[in-house]
Amino acid sequence: MSKVKSSHKFKNCRYVSRTRHGGNCSDRKTKTLYTSDYFTTYIKVNETDTYVFVECLSTSRSVISRSYITLIRKRHALEEELYQNLASHRNTASPKETLSVIMLGLDGMSKQNFQRTMPKTREFLERDLQAVELRKFNKIGLNTFPNFAGLLAGRHEEELKYSYNEYLDKINDKFIWSPYRKAGYRTFLMLDSMAVSAFHYLKLGWMKPPVDYYVREMVIDSDIDKKTRGKEFQCYGDKTEIETLTDLVVQFARVFNHSTTPYFSFR
């Protein structure tokens, strides 16, 4: 449990299942699907739940802790569709192997700065994880989105023919996860801020989820939670932000850890 105050006596907990709001508020608000019964030790969540937050209450009914939990689960209809996509991809492209892809972005840090300040991390990524460093990639614009346009869409921002007062659904097929999905890959996207991510700062985001597994609800709800996130937004309760976000990538990789279930992940 996160941030339990010793001055309050614990009574019980409950969880709330939530999802994106839909419509014009899809990337800015969530809505409640249902609230669970109270429990004191554990409870089984529904198989359809993909995101919940857990509140623990005191004897005076005040909230003493809150935790945000995203669940990566296989979806039968989606798996059937992607299985057919993968079979078609293998028949037409005849790839020698089908490799899953994990991309981790460190915003605010240049490649050269990463090489200078985190040499051991870089060595571990390349030596132990056989990571591929994009040596020819360079900054092509101010702030994150213009550079993401080059990295994730292979285009200059102006080539996307996108206006900041439009939803990104219009150009979603230009981003790298779309051809991966057509090739039978499960796609994952998680951004660490509700309002200032590359796709949401001065932009509307998406109306429909841009990928199969779009970790958005947890970010929306936690961003406005002063009890759990803190002033500096460095923690999710009793876990660091980087630990929470990275654990979700690991969870995604473990669920689809098989050559017949390839995936593309960007965080």
Fold topology:
Elements: E1 10-20, E2 30-35, E3 51-58, E4 63-70, H1 76-93, E5 101-103, H2 111-117, H3 119-127, H4 144-153, H5 177-182, E6 186-190, E7 213-215, H6 217-223, H7 226-229, E8 235-236, E9 239-240, H8 241-255, E10 263-266
Parallel strand pairs: 5-10, 6-7, 6-10
Antiparallel strand pairs: 1-2, 1-3, 3-4, 8-9
Determine the strand fraction and express it as a percent band: 15-25%
What is the CA–CA distance across the termini? 26 Å
Order of helix and strand elements from N to C terminus? EEEEHEHHHHEEHHEEHE
- The shape, in one word, is globular
SS field, number of helical segments: 8
Largest sheet, strands/sense/barrel: 4 strands, antiparallel
Strand line-up of the largest beta sheet: 2-1-3-4
Mean of all residue-level pLDDT scores = 90
Q: Helical content, roughly?
A: 25-40%
Helices and strands: which structural class? alpha/beta
Report on the structure:
It holds the Pfam family DUF229. One of its GO terms (cellular component) is extracellular space. The protein has one domain (76-266). 28% of the residues lie in helices and 19% in strands. It contains eight helices and ten strands. It has helices at residues 76-93, 111-117, 119-127, 144-153, 177-182, 217-223, 226-229, 241-255, and strands spanning 10-20, 30-35, 51-58, 63-70, 101-103, 186-190, 213-215, 235-236, 239-240, 263-266. A four-stranded antiparallel beta sheet has the order 2-1-3-4. The relative contact order is 0.17.
